[in-house]
Amino acid sequence: xxxxxxxxxxxxxxxxxxxxxxxxxxxxxxxxxxxxxxxxxxxxxxxxxxxxxxxxxxxxxxxxxxxxxxxxxxxxxxxxxxxxxxxxxxxx
Length: 92
Fold this sequence. Notes:
Shape: globular
Helix content: 40-55%
CATH class: Alpha Beta
Number of helices: 4
């Protein structure tokens, strides 16, 4: 089950805005990037601060496990736009 894996615990911490659990899962030499933000973050304390700011301003985020470049990864679930929005975009 995904929830029992390291990735599952990381996703769960993100979804519930649990910075302490999230940071406990990271190594001391953590390196994080959060596209589309063109910045990169290094160090456990810095990454903890970034996630605390994200959770305080944006709240929780739904994430789904996936793979990227052969490595475990996660991202937001794909939710297609409503049909009327797609029609408007295609007709312009």
